[in-house]
Amino acid sequence: MVQDPLRAGFGERLAAGVAERGPLCVGIDPHPSLLHAWGLDETPGSVERFAMTAVEALAGEVAVLKPQSAFFECYGSAGVAVLERVMREAQSAGALVLLDVKRGDIGSTMTAYAMAYLDEHSPVSADAITVSPYLGYGSLAPAIGIAEQNGRGVFVLARTSNPEGAGLQQSVHGSGDSIAQSIVDSAAESNRGKAPLGHVGVVAGATIPPGELDFSSLNGPILAPGLGAQGATLKDLKAVFGRALPNVLPTTSRDVLRHGPNGLREAATRIKHDLALMLNP
Ligand SMILES: O=c1ccn([C@@H]2O[C@H](COP(=O)(O)O)[C@@H](O)[C@H]2O)c(=O)[nH]1
């Protein structure tokens, strides 16, 4: 399913994946509590078993898999080596890999992050990564540029799903817009004129109040975490994203992984099915 990133833009590759498999993105978060629930210990070997089981169950089923880098990095180089294998296997099995790594820095360092995660020759090359705009949206320019050259994407944190995000992200900017809205609008600028979708997505939680953000000009994908363990439901997606719903990638990690090695594929399939019914009643 994954098209050649050097021939097709990320928006095009994502649209093709979603058309074939639906928009659900499943997170691969080898959280210690999940490792224990699966009867595994907190070692790189167990993390590999956990994550590869998730890849085998899901990489042929969903359009996007989202490994959470932190849960691999905490094991040092052994954990990062597992992450590299997980990413390659997921891509070989046909899924796009969105690495949740939330990088953000001054432009010169941002270039190095982009080379690490968005260059085809890197061992941790993802199809897209999450990035943080809190050093200024402009500081992300190297990542946005390198992603585009390599047929890859970035998802910029706009309005995160956690309750602590609201204070900062809802605060009003000089223009009269919230910081979150100004990030959505900056991403819209980066995506202007791109078809079928630009390569700059935003992250906006399924947990945020309905109608808080206007996505009408975005022309890019919206990663929506918060389903399941953080309390949001599929019904919330409709209320929060309204007409932007066709461009939303709802994502959940624990709500699928908690079903264990033998139940996670069925859990993901059920959510996919319910999502499809909601999108096409
Ligand atoms: O706003 C955000 C951005 C990222 N996340 C990440 O998504 C998953 C959510 O896991 P669940 O088990 O489905 O709650 C996790 O890796 C977060 O770091 C987010 O939750 N909110």
TrEMBL record:
Per its record, how is this protein called by name?
A: Orotidine 5'-phosphate decarboxylase
UniProt cross-references to PANTHER family, sorted A to Z: OROTIDINE 5'-PHOSPHATE DECARBOXYLASE
Q: Which family does it belong to?
A: Belongs to the OMP decarboxylase family. Type 2 subfamily.
| Designated gene of the protein | pyrF
Query: What are the protein's UniProt keywords?
Result: Decarboxylase, Lyase, Pyrimidine biosynthesis
Tell me the pathway: Pyrimidine metabolism; UMP biosynthesis via de novo pathway; UMP from orotate: step 2/2
Q: Keyword Lyase, does the record have it?
A: yes
Q: Which CDD domains match?
A: OMP_decarboxylase_like
Reaction(s) catalysed (UniProt annotation) = orotidine 5'-phosphate + H(+) = UMP + CO2
Domain named Orotidine 5'-phosphate decarboxylase: residues:
23-271
Matching SMART domains, A to Z?
A: OMPdecase (SM00934)
Q: Name one GO molecular function term.
A: orotidine-5'-phosphate decarboxylase activity
Which domain of life, per UniProt? Bacteria
Q: Which catalytic residues are annotated? A: 102
What EC number is given for this enzyme? Answer: 4.1.1.23
